[in-house]
Structures are given as structure tokens and as C-alpha cells.
Amino acid sequence: MRKKVCGSASDRAGFTLLELLTALTVVSVAVGVLVLLLGRVGELYREAELRAAASDLALSQVAAFLRAPSSFRWRQDGEDGRLVAAPVGEEPSPDGYAFQDMPESLSRAADFRWQAFARALENREDALELTVVVVWQDRGQTRSFALTSPLPAGHVMQSTGGGSHAG
């Protein structure tokens, strides 16, 4: 009778323990990388949502300046001729003003505040450059979004008492 030195092909079918451990290691590294990527995608999505909200709020504030110019007063800021806006009835605030009638979903997401500045445009006496800056805190970091738009100089003249505008 003959002894088998090597097992037959049916005896050697399957994976060895080393092959299984190697495959599990590769799969776990891939899953770990995927989890990290999904976490980063979530952070980017949140940041994009807050930036889009800030953009909408800045646009609504520009519309408020155009719709109701008498709701704001302007004061000279320094020697560069820049004007700073403040809502009528509020004291100047270095960290900005709260938005009126902000949707609850946004007020829960972040504390959005705004500041507005105007400066004279070169060779244009009838218009100013209005910049509305929206600032908010996101995970301990200050974020901001700025929107610039032309503003008829008459809007500012009305709220400064008719004096000369910046420039």
C-alpha cells in the first residue's frame, strides 16, 4: 500500500489562516478610510450649509438697505472715508448686529451677525460700494462671508442728514 505524502487537491481546498488574516486586514483598513472620508464629507456639507445660509442672510441685508434706507444710520469710520452702518436705535457694535426675523433653523445652527460698510466709488458721485459681512462661529472658529453691491448714494445721504458721503 502506498502512503500519501501530499494531500489530494480536495484536501487542500480553502484559505489558509494567513490568507484570511491578510484579507481581513485589507478590508478593515479600507473600511477605516471610508469612515474617515464620510466624516469629512459630513463636515464639508455642514460648512457649505452655513456658508449658503450666510450668503442668503447677506443678500437679505442688502435688500433691507435698498428697501428701507431710513432704518439705518451711517457714521464715518476713521480717516479712510469708510462709512459704517448701524440699525436705527442700536448703539455701534464691534462684533456686529443680530439679524431680525431669522428662521429658527438658522438661529439654532449658528449665531449669525452682520456688519455693513460703504465707500465711495471712483468717478461715481451717485453710488457707493456697499459691503455686508456676515460673521458666525463654527466649532470655535470665526467664519465670515462678504457680499458687495452698489448702493445709491441718496440712500446713505438720507440717513446721514444729507451731508457729503464718503470720498
Describe the structure.
The chain is built from three helices and six strands. The protein is α+β, with helices and mostly antiparallel strands. It has one domain (17-159). Strands 1, 2, 3, 4, 5 and 6 form a six-stranded antiparallel β-sheet that branches. A hairpin with a 2-residue loop joins β5 (124-138) and β6 (141-152).
What would the average pLDDT be, to the nearest integer? 84
Order of helices and strands: HEEEHEEEH
Q: Helix coverage percent of residues? A: 25-40%
**Distance between termini?**
111 Å
Which class do the helix and strand fractions yield?
A: alpha+beta
Number of domain units: 1
Silhouette: elongated
Number of strands: 6
Oligomeric state of the chains present here: single chain
Rg of Cα set? 31 Å
Provide the β-strand percentage band: 25-35%
Low-confidence stretches: 161-167
Task: Please summarize the sheet with the most strands.
Answer: 6 strands, antiparallel
Number of helices: 3
Write the layout of secondary structure elements.
Blueprint: H1 17-67, E1 72-77, E2 82-87, E3 97-98, H2 104-109, E4 113-121, E5 124-138, E6 141-152, H3 153-159
Antiparallel strand pairs: 1-2, 2-4, 3-4, 4-5, 5-6
